[in-house]
Amino acid sequence: MSLPITMKAAVLYGPNDMRLIDAYPVPEPGPGEVIIKVVACAICGTDPDILARGWPNHPPYGEFVFGHEYSGTIAALGPGVTEFEIGERVVVEPHKGCGMCENCRDGLYTTCLNYGSLEKGHRHYGFTTNGGYAEYARIHNICVYKIPGEMSFEDATLITTAGTSLYAIRRAGGFEGGETVVVAGPGPIGLMGVVLARLMGAGTIILIGTRPERLELGLKLGADVAIDLTQENVVERVLALTSGHGADMVLECAGTAQSAADAVEFTKKSGRIAFVGVHSKSPIVPLNARKITLGNLTIAGVRAEGQRSVARALTVLSQNKVDITSLITHTFALGDIHRAFETAEKRLENAIKVVVKP
Ligand SMILES: [Zn+2]
Ligand SMILES: [Zn+2]
Questions:
Q1: Which ligand places an atom closest to the C-alpha of 188?
Q2: If you measure from the C-alpha of residue 118 to the centroid of ligand 2, how many angstroms do you get, rounded to a whole number?
Q3: pTM
Q4: How many angstroms from the chain centroid is the CA of residue 319?
Q5: Which parts of the chain fold into alpha helices (H)?
Q6: Domains along the sequence of the chain with CATH
């Protein structure tokens, strides 16, 4: 199969200047790389930031194609790639570490010490290297996974989200079967955290948020209790639900100061908290440090989907019948990408995950 010379792509020309280009050059695969014919690319929470402000070390404006949660079929193989065949259904994860630094060698490639360095082999697809809002995308084969069984291309775009939720559970030290898990913030990563915690044998799962329709969805996806923080005292309620002891594990996915502070208060002594939500507005947050120390708490930061979490999330989700499709609320053609972004960013019509299809 030979590749066309040009393709349709959404190209960033500057802050808030994304243009649909009809004849953007189709990339060619280098050693170890593949070209994917993109079928679906989901909009991530960081994408509106990239649209508005770019990203450190992003490709030059006028050439920058972003989008990093995409699936499709293998369209071309670079030299040395024996892991895939033309036409295979695949999905990607966006982080490729340099493979050489101390963190990469420990599997912690989302915190590669050579982040952004193309010379060192680091790639962050859709951020520092081109991504998937285009008909074709080039990516290193170690970031590519076969889509299992009957999972749809659209569902597969959620796998980086799921990988992040799974990595959060791992980073904080995991949970035992039957333990209480609190998920604060019913965004895509939080809701996927509910799904995975349920499938992995959590006991009571408590979801905290503000939007009734998202809390409702969380209950359908496996949460036992939903707390609307605009209506109830969250700390008191979680303590009441846990015999006054607090939760064993908390996935803090809201990224707000209050949510972070509350998490420390309603975590059990010797419990674990994963900080997944990105605190972009006010990152300096007062936490009850006395409780953290005397309560023997573990707090883990979580950057994206490290330690092959995507591979395991794919397996967990493909082997269980769970309706993750309900997280995808909107689908747009690539030609409607501006409307897709508006829908995702303003959460129009209760948008959760918005997928763009080239
Ligand atoms: Zn993302
Ligand atoms: Zn590295």
A1: 1
A2: 11
A3: 0.97
A4: 20
A5: 47-53, 102-105, 153-156, 159-171, 188-199, 212-221, 234-241, 257-265, 289-294, 309-318, 337-345
A6: 6-157+323-357 (3.90.180.10), 164-301 (3.40.50.720)
Mean pLDDT in residue range 18-43: 98
Query: What pLDDT digit, counting tens, does each position of 132-155 carry?
Result: 999 999 999 999 999 998 999 999
pLDDT band for 281, please (50, 70, 90 cuts).
confident
* Closest listed ligand to the CA of 96: 2
Provide DSSP, 224-281. SEEEETTTS-HHHHHHHHTTTS-EEEEEE-S--HHHHHHHHHTEEEEEEEEE-S---S
Q: Note the pLDDT tens digit of each residue in 60-74.
A: 999 999 999 999 999
Residue type, 152: S
96, pLDDT greater than 70: yes
Instruction: Find the 246 Cα to ligand 2 centroid distance in Å.
Output: 37
**Residue 333 carries which DSSP code?**
E
CA-CA distance, 167 to 304, in Å (whole number)?
Answer: 7
CB count within 10 Å of CB 292 equals 15
* Ligand 1 midpoint to CA 270 (Å): 31
Q: Which ligand is nearest to the CA of 108?
A: 2
Q: Ligand 1: distance of its center to the CA of 158 in Å?
A: 9
